Automatic annotation (TrEMBL):
PROSITE patterns: SLH, SUBTILASE, SUBTILASE_HIS, SUBTILASE_SER. InterPro entries: Peptidase_S8/S53_dom (IPR000209), Peptidase_S8/S53_dom_sf (IPR036852), Peptidase_S8/S53_subtilisin (IPR051048), Peptidase_S8_His-AS (IPR022398), Peptidase_S8_Ser-AS (IPR023828), Peptidase_S8_subtilisin-rel (IPR015500), SLH_dom (IPR001119). The active site is at residues 68, 101, 254. Keywords: Hydrolase, Protease, Serine protease, Signal. Belongs to the peptidase S8 family. This is Serine protease.
């Protein structure tokens, strides 16, 4: 993964501002300054900067440092507010921006206001110190960023804004942040744009972590969230300064952070003696609540409200009322909180979300001189309460389980006066269940072919070792995935040399990216002991977990080998199944089977391990030089569920050759061969009740089958098919039936190109077949059993008359086909289904053959 700090620039697909139901879209208020593009700066209305400007609009008493890619010193809207900068990327050179990001950030913060040109920053007039820490490509290191903070402090900066982020904790950066707090400088940083946990430096407790929202106050998808988030500000299409004296929009948490920095500077213009902690608390106290009531992980304390921030007096306990369990206020881990306890307010309730099993440390600053001024009762979920006592400077640690924890703070009984407390929390994850496994000797054995374990880096320098014993040649698939992007994983895999302790390691696998931080290895393995080592790139302790997944697949045994030539062809098991592997592209698998009588043989491929390039060829032992049938698309046919081949084979010995352009050895192909003995050339009548009639009429060419050697005896017969069969039966018994239709009657659905045009026409001309209204013949419509009876009766010139009784309960004497059905039944040419005839049922091919056989004595 990239180990650098990146600008927090969000990629925005659409720049359109959409109206949505029940959402407030902020429109620009009447101009509070005369800047030309002020109406484009909707974010200023959203954070109520216009209203704040009537109270305070500038701060030229303090230095505000912008740690970024520099600034455009020639930009007409910036040059009057810029101090000579510092270039830490190329020392000795100016801090002129060569990327553009710093110019955009600086414009949001302090483009000159009310100067009749361009845009306005949150600050109209200011002393901005650009410190170039980002190179031209937008990257830097945490060391350079830490140096930038220290350089800003050395130059006397009281507000430092950083629209950049790194997912990695850094001691050097943490020390610089702590120095800023001691030096009285307010730090503001973008939360980052990775759709993950709040990044550093924003994640440090004394830095204001700023997320981004759209114009309707919905959180920007990319904006990082979590327990460290403090505020949100507009971060979508924020109109600002651009390189070369231009203007335009940019998006992301980078655009949100400088708005908060501008508000901090305006607060200090009104209250120059406030500490950094006080400035942060006033920003949180005056934010417009969004989402869940009070603080939440997505929006922090809410949307920046500049107007309220510069007009409101600082509260030392803005979380009130919280003296009951139900009114407990959120205390995020890795953050700070302030409150008061006194004679009239003796209890404060707080609540904390615990992400993992671990422990939370609380460091207290208490204005009371009593050593144990405050009693704290902690209520971890599913654990007994824990009581601890706080005095000024005390740190206590509480074991916690993942889930909710309530905290009750109470003024100790011996304390008479009111006092203020500040608590700073720090969470540490417990060691994972695999510990201790920090060395080769303590490596945790993994057993099984599919394994999943969860681990973490609970301590600085922690690394996790696992061992896995491979018994056969095979394929190993190992992946490690973090649950948040602060965990920068590295994966190492090595094999222990036989009989030695030494491990031969692969090159370290470190290919994850910000968008896909998973590390994955797929490799061939041989019998022996393997070690897997998982570590964090910066060797940090990280509050997060990873999941290690291991899958082992042994080489599939091909029990048919050796069968690489036709002389070694494997006889098919039961004559039906072929299976095996193709471990090399040059490998071929041969099978043999015998056909004892003329048969229809069908080849199918239920499973092929590759997507293409699998080849099939069929040979007869009578000529091994040429394939009877072959195809290179076995895999494609398998995926479609289609047969590979179906063909008639004469008695003899046959061979199948299989090979593949793409080799595989961890899965087996599966092909089947099915033999169906042919009766009169048909494969589907061997045990059919109408078999003898089908054979007889087929021999006389009265009925025919299909190209796939089937007769389909149970398939419905169409009017065209029945007319054809009937006329053939008449001719076979000596009737002089025309072969060409010469009549003048035409039917719109029976064109001359129809395959049965003449047969249908002759049957119509003979009065055997009738048409339908609207000049329709409906040649392809299935014929009913009633129509079949009537047409045969007409063809045989059977006397038909209405009878007094019926042989079938579903054919009353009034039925239009009753005379024909009764006449044919009496001659035993036709029968029903017990007492039913099913006159509207479709006549099948088998039924037609039997009726024709009886009616014409065929």
């Amino acid at each position: 993964m990239k180990k650098s700090v990146n600008m927090s620039v969000a990629t925005v697909i659409s720049v359109a501002l959409l109206m949505a139901n029940n959402q407030t879209i902020y429109a620009a208020a009447p101009p509070a300054s005369n800047d030309y593009y002020l109406s484009n700066q909707l974010h200023l209305s959203q954070i109520r900067a216009h209203q704040a400007w009537s109270v305070v609009n500038s701060n030229e008493q303090i230095i505000i440092a912008v740690l970024d890619s520099g600034a455009d010193y020639k930009h007409p809207d910036l040059k009057d507010n810029l101090l000579p900068g510092v270039n830490l990327v190329n020392p000795g050179r100016s801090a002129q921006d060569d990327n553009g990001h710093g110019t955009e950030v600086t414009g949001v913060l302090a483009a000159s206001g009310n100067n009749s040109i361009g845009v306005s920053g949150v600050l109209w007039n200011a002393k901005i110190l650009p410190i170039k820490v980002l190179a031209k490509n937008g990257d830097t290191t945490v060391q350079t960023l830490a140096k930038g903070i220290n350089t800003a402090l050395d130059r006397g900066a009281k507000v430092i804004v950083m629209s950049l982020s790194s997912m990695s904790y850094s001691k050097e950066l943490a020390n610089a942040v702590q120095r800023a707090e001691r030096s009285g400088a307010v730090l503001i940083a973008a939360s980052g744009n990775e759709s993950s946990r709040v990044a550093y430096p924003a994640a440090y407790p004394t830095v204001v972590a700023v997320g981004a929202v759209r114009s309707n106050n919905e959180v920007l998808y990319q904006s990082n969230t979590g327990p460290e988030l403090n505020l949100v500000a507009p971060g979508f299409n924020v109109y600002t300064t651009k390189l070369g004296g231009k203007y335009g929009s940019f998006s992301g948490t980078s655009a949100a952070a400088p708005q908060v920095a501008g508000a901090a500077a305006l607060i200090l213009a009104r209250h120059p003696k406030l500490s950094p902690f006080d400035v942060r608390q006033l920003l949180y106290q005056t934010a417009t609540d969004l989402g869940e009531k009070g603080w939440d992980r997505k929006t922090g304390y809410g949307l920046l409200n500049v107007d309220k921030a510069v007009r409101t007096a600082l509260s030392y306990d803005f979380l009130e009322p919280n003296n009951q369990t139900y009114s407990a206020k959120a205390f995020p881990i890795e953050s700070q909180i302030r409150g008061n306890l006194g004679p009239k307010d003796t209890i404060d309730w707080l609540k904390m979300d615990i992400p993992y099993d671990g422990k939370v440390s609380f460091t207290a600053t208490v204005t009371s001189g009593i050593s144990s001024a405050m009693a704290a009762t902690f209520y971890p979920e599913n654990r007994p309460p824990i009581v601890q006592y706080f005095g000024n400077g005390d740190t206590i640690t509480v074991p916690v389980k993942a889930g909710k924890m309530n905290i009750r703070l109470m003024r100790n009984g011996g304390v008479n006066n009111s006092f203020t407390y500040v608590l700073t929390s720090k969470f540490t994850i417990n060691p994972d269940r695999n510990e201790p496994n920090d060395t080769q000797e303590t490596a945790r054995p993994l057993v099984g072919n599919q394994i999943s374990v969860t681990g973490n880096f609970h301590d600085e320098g922690d690394q996790d070792w696992f061992s896995y014993y491979v018994r056969e040649y095979g394929h190993l698939d190992v992946s490690v995935s973090p649950d948040n992007k602060r965990v920068d994983l590295m994966l190492s895999i090595g094999k222990q040399e036989l009989g030695k302790k030494m491990v031969v390691w692969d090159p370290t696998y470190d290919n994850g990216t910000k968008d896909n931080p998973t590390e994955r290895v797929q490799k061939e393995v041989s019998p022996g002991k393997y070690y897997i080592r998982v570590s964090e790139y910066n060797r940090n302790a990280v509050n997060g977990e990873y999941q290690l997944d291991l899958g082992y697949t042994p080489v599939k045994k091909d029990f048919n080998e050796p069968n690489d030539t036709y002389q070694k062809a494997s006889p098919l098991s039961g004559g039906t199944v072929m299976s095996g592997t193709i471990p090399t592209a040059s490998d071929s698998d041969w099978f043999q089977f015998t056909v004892n009588s003329e048969s229809y043989v069908t080849f199918r491929a239920p499973y092929i391990p590759v997507d293409s390039g699998f080849r099939f060829a069929l040979y007869s032992d009578r000529n091994m030089n040429y394939a009877i049938a072959s195809t290179n698309e076995v895999a494609e046919l398998s995926n479609r569920g289609s047969d590979i081949f179906g063909l008639r084979l004469q008695p003899g010995k046959y061979y199948v050759r299989l090979n593949s352009g793409t080799s595989f050895k961890y899965e087996s192909y599966r092909l089947t061969v099915t033999q169906q003995k042919l009766i009169a050339g048909y494969r589907d009548i061997s045990d059919h009740w109408a078999r003898s009639e089908i054979v007889r009429l087929s021999a006389r060419d009265i009925v025919n089958g299909f190209n796939d050697a089937s007769f389909k005896p149970n398939q419905a017969v169409t009017r065209a098919e029945f007319a054809t069969m009937l006329l053939k039966s008449m001719r076979a018994t000596g009737s002089k039936v025309a072969t060409t239709y010469t009549g003048k009657t035409t039917f719109r659905d029976m064109p001359k190109r129809h395959w049965a045009y003449h047969n249908l026409g002759v049957a119509y001309q003979l009065g055997i077949l009738k048409g339908y209204p609207k000049n329709e013949m409906k040649p392809d419509q299935p014929i009913s059993r009633a129509e079949m009876a009537v047409m045969i009766a007409r063809a045989r010139d059977v006397l038909m008359y209405n009878r007094g009784t019926s042989n079938y309960q579903d054919v009353p004497t009034s039925h239009w086909a009753s005379p024909a059905i009764e006449a044919l039944t009496s001659r035993k040419w036709l029968s029903g289904y017990g007492s039913s005839f099913k006159p509207n049922g479709r006549a099948t091919r088998a039924e037609v053959v039997v009726v024709l056989s009886k009616a014409y004595q065929l």
